[in-house]
Write a structure and sequence with these properties.
Layout lengths: L3 E5 L5 H12 L3 H4 L4 H4 L2 H7 L1 E7 L2 E10 L4 E8 L8 H15 L4 E7 L3 H9 L3 E8 L2 E9 L15 E2 L8
Parallel strand pairs: 4-5
Antiparallel strand pairs: 1-2, 1-8, 2-3, 3-4, 5-7, 6-7
């Protein structure tokens, strides 16, 4: 879809990143009893030490994904889609971007975790090939851990990682 792109985030995107995160995660505060971890993360630090991508539609940032290289796997640290843009396939595109990060780094596994109170995620990730590995209390949160093996031929084509990954053709729902 013309006008939609996944690109590397910059410091100029910080306010928009924080807004997407707040909008996407606020509904979970009551379920969890406190702000979810992505709402308290320092995205200035993430920009320095992680791969932070934004999904931009027109002039608006509607999605964010943060990944970290952990030598033997890629950790998908945060993924968020603005509520007004949910249900349009953007979450899948951001997952594919994370999987491409793993392949770009020569890694064969993507790991992630979600809070068990985020019940929507417990069915979302398996639909996209992730399998639950275990559950644990971590940093005071009841987390569900997932993993997915990735190979170069398995990941979607969301661009070459040069920061200007325009999504065109049939990639996005119309």
């Amino acid at each position: 879809m013309t006008g939609t792109a996944i690109r590397r985030a910059t410091t100029a995107d910080l306010a928009a990143i924080q807004q997407v995160i707040a909008d996407a995660y606020t509904k979970y505060i009551e379920r969890i009893g406190r702000p979810p971890a992505p709402m308290t993360a320092d995205y200035t630090v993430a920009l320095e030490h992680s791969r932070v991508w934004v999904l931009q539609h027109g002039d608006s940032i509607v999605g964010v994904v943060v990944t970290e290289d952990h030598a033997d796997h890629l950790l998908l640290e945060t993924i968020a889609v603005a509520p007004r843009a949910q249900g349009m396939g953007y979450g899948r595109l951001l997952l594919e971007r994370a999987e491409c990060d793993a392949v770009d780094l020569g890694l064969t596994e993507v790991r992630l975790y979600t809070n068990e109170a985020m019940t929507e995620n417990l069915s979302f990730y398996p639909r996209h090939g992730y399998r639950e590995t275990h559950r644990a209390v971590d940093d005071g949160f009841r987390r569900v851990f997932f993993s997915k093996a990735v190979r170069h031929n398995d990941v979607g084509d969301v661009g070459d990682g040069d920061g200007g990954d325009d999504l065109q053709g049939g990639s996005l729902p119309q």
